[in-house]
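Sharing a chain and its predicted structure for anyone who wants a worked example. Both blocks are below, sequence first, tokens second.
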Amino acid sequence: MSPSAASPAQTVPAARRALPGAPFLAAARGEHPARTPVWFMRQAGRSLPEYRALREGTSMFDACFDPEMLAEITLQPIRRHGVDAAILFSDIVVPLKAAGLDIDIVAGTGPVVAEPIRDAAGVRALPVLDPEQVERVADGVRLLVASLGETPLIGFAGAPFTLASYLIEGGPSRNHEHTKALMHSEPELWHELAGRLADMAITFLSAQLDAGADAIQLFDSWAGALSERDYREFVLPHSAKVLSAVAAYGVPRIHFGVGTGELLVAMRDAGADVVGVDWRIPLDEAVRRLGGGVVQGNLDPALLHASWPVLEAEVRRIHAEGRAADGHIFNLGHGVLPGVDPDVLTRVVGLVHELQP
């Protein structure tokens, strides 16, 4: 592997807020809280009418860099649903934007990069993220820590592979053809790029943790496009670098990807305390493959549109499968879809909390 720039210096806070009664943190440690904790990826945002009202006339990036607005958006699902953890309202490309890259979030498409990076010159021109460039995000975290009471806050960042794919493809991609071509044709250049992006993720996560975040999730949204062999060679070292860099904070580290049923062990081996599982394999099968441990998941988000008897049966099934794990955090297999009725999410939270762990 090619050497990358030195990792950002870490400053670990002397003390973190104590949340001894938080079921989410207990489950993440492999303990057995009195109830199964539940939160939803993308619980903050587009499915909530209060979010749409607040965001009207404000771009996604403007919202992500406004401490008061990002804090309010993060708090909305806590008030409405009673979930057991807050997830910071942000986007995985926020650190890329903060560092000065020309990137936009296009409605209906996702992140779009003005000038894709596909050669050595582009990789070497990639800026280094300075903590001051995400200080407004950290300000939002501090506001949240002061407002959340006993509810933990999860910070997050995009994993190096997924960030690299956006930069190389120029936006979301079905086949990741340019990414895979560069990865295999110019492995040294690939590792240099992924190493730089790992440093960027470390800086972003450290800023959130220094401000008081209680856990982190590393999103590798597109890792499921890879074979396990390619994942272990080209991706795992860089995700491991990120997860290792924040280990000293002593908070739970969740590792999640989509379509990663064949990569679960490798993703665990990268240093995860909790492995996120999408809906494509049963949760108890995921636990079998992992040999135990703590898992998060894994209701199919599309089933939030089903009738309540269908949805209730699925929630009960997944909850029962989760008993095979040392710890289970109930979640979706990916994010809340835009058209979901928020009352359905609230009802799911209530059901999970009623079920015997």
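Comments welcome. The chain is about 45% helix and 10% strand.
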